[in-house]
From TrEMBL:
Residue ranges of the TM segments: 12-37, 57-83, 104-126, 138-161
Assigned keywords, A-Z: Membrane, Transmembrane, Transmembrane helix
Name assigned to this protein: DUF2254 domain-containing protein
Keyword Transmembrane: yes
Domain of life: Bacteria
InterPro entries: DUF2254_membrane (IPR018723)
Amino acid sequence: MRREAIREYLASALWAMPTAAVVVALIAGAGLSTIRLDPASPFAVLLFQGTSDDARNLLISIASTMVTVIALVLGLTVVALQLASTQFSPRLLRNFLRDIPNQLTLSVFVATFAYSTAGLYTVGIASGQRIEEYPRLAVSGALLLLFVSMVMLVFFVHHLAHSIQIDQVMKSVEKATLRALEHSFVEGDPHLRLPRPPRDAMALPAPGSGYVQAFHVEALVGALAHQGLTALVVPMVGRHVVAGTPLVWVWKAADDGERPLTPEASAELRKALVQTVRVGYERTLEQDVAFGIRQLADIASKALSPAVNDPYTANQAVDHLASILAALAVRQHGPQAVRDAQGVVRLHVPARDFDYLMELALGQVRRYGASEPRVVRALLRVCGDVAWFGDKTHHAVVRRYIETLLSDVERVVPQKADREPLLAEGAAILETLD
């Protein structure tokens, strides 16, 4: 759990990769400074041919240029973050921070600056005296990094211009959500009913306030099996918890007699809880598919606001949500009952059902865009696509949504010429569901 938390943090830390690049650049500079090539070597023509003063001036020029370029890159990055936050959704900032090309570009620039600046200690100076000998291979490396930096600058401008386009933003969110769905989604039982904790159940409190980011239940299930206990997790992934409130309810199994819960057992459970549930200050896409849906729903809702009034962007967001809902419709949703090695149910974990996810994806869009015929057609198209997948449980959810949407259309679309085709299209989809 701790290792995954560190990896998740470093993936969105803008300083991590540049710091590693500076360390690598310093090590590479120190290593190249010890290499001396024979002037008769065929590779000697590739080395810097100037004097030691020329080499120092070159390194100074590269370092000063990199400072300007780094300031430019950071300024463009801040502009992109501000644009994404105000125009699309503030929850998209994390995606820009995790963007590998942005981190790689900044790393190359910072590495070039560190490499050139560190070279000033060895080029043309020894024991406080000026000398003519200097590591020509190391200086040539600074020139190579300069050219790489120029290429990366052009690539960064190209990448930044594409990354703030709404199509690219929504496609990135869709891909990340589908990846989380593929790797971390655990199917549940829609017919399972979570047990109610008995009166003598013990509460394991949340260690801190924040959002539940991930569950890894192996450690807690093992501790429960060792103590002969049953437990119920209170929040779902993505929910906010307050420090000190119940995070897990624990009680004795029915066949465990009246053996009391010792302080040692309580300490074991609390230790296992730390290894089972991770709480952080922000939501992540590691196991929280609903967070990716929330981002696309935010884009659609903001596009339908009177300040923006961009129904086409809302339609595009709905199209991307259709791909996610289709992938969800072929899976079973609901709580999970986790068994130990002997097959005994030890832990109950709540989870979102398909009805909740459908409402999360398209509910706000329906409420904000029911008066716009093109948005309604997009929603009906999504319902028709999702209905192609799944079973009767999923079809019932789609049916309820379409009926609510058509009720809104009858209520808020004043023109008969706009209203009747929408009602006919919705009725046709309901007929196919039958």
